[in-house]
Structures are given as C-alpha cells and as structure tokens.
Amino acid sequence: MLKDDITEWMNDDGFTISTNKSFLDTALIHNFLYNDSYWVKGIAKELVEASIENSILCYGVYEGNPNESAAKQIGFARVVSDLVRFSWIGDVFILPEYRGQGLSKWLMSIVTEHPKLKGTNFQLATKDAHSLYAQYGFKPLGQIENRMSRPLDWQLVYEGYKLHK
Known about the structure:
By secondary structure, the chain is an alpha+beta fold. Helix content is about 25%, strand content about 20%.
C-alpha cells in the first residue's frame, strides 16, 4: 500500500471507488475469482488474501460510499508495481448484475491515471476485454521475441503457502 495514498472517487450514480484495503470484501472477491473468473477458478481464499496484501494498490468499487455507511462491493482491481518502470493490473471485475453502466471504464480511468502508475509500462492479460483496455492505451506486446515468462506452477505456489491443492 502506498502510504498516505488512500483515495476515494464518487460518481453521480452513487458508486464509489476506494483504494482503502480495509473496505474490501475478501469473501466476495474470493467467491468471484473462485467461481466466476476464467483466470484463477478454484483459487484458495488464503492466496486471494495474500495477493491483496502483497499488491501495492487495490481498488474496490462500491454501490454507496463505504466511508459513510455500509456499502456493497461490486467490483475490484489490483495493481502490482515498482511505481517507476513496471505495473501489472489483474483480477479486474465488475459483478455481472452491475455491468453495462460504465463502471469498468470508470475503474480503468481511475487506475491508469494514478500519478505514479500512468507513466509506467503497464501490462495485463485478458481473454476477452481487449477493446476495453485498448481505450486506455494498452496494446499487444511489441518485440515479443525479447520477452520471456516463467510459467505459473500452482503446485509450488500452494506449497509455498503450506496449502493443499
């Protein structure tokens, strides 16, 4: 978490975006990722909690304002970054019943305009939202022949957290 960088944004429709991790509904986030995502279906709750804790910024999207009263979390995104050269956005979602209201676009505009993120090499992976992300400057990777990746090994991740898969 960035010190002194908890921020809230409100729109005219009664929705709020906040970077305050204490407002996050980790049960809701886990439920969506575990049951509805295509990228980490079946993930352990402990790993979702660790990914939130270890991410520099997390953005909760709420119906209502969590600063004023109980607000329902309806979306999420998290960012891993060194705040200079590299940023990764992942686990982006808006609950299905809230889609079509421009909330994904609003969330992406908030995330990509963060003063310490907007100049970084921002990356993500998506199977089906290319047109959304393209609106915020994301493009297919260039010079792919220069890039390398070490594959994710879920078994080793679970072992590292002393969990059973």
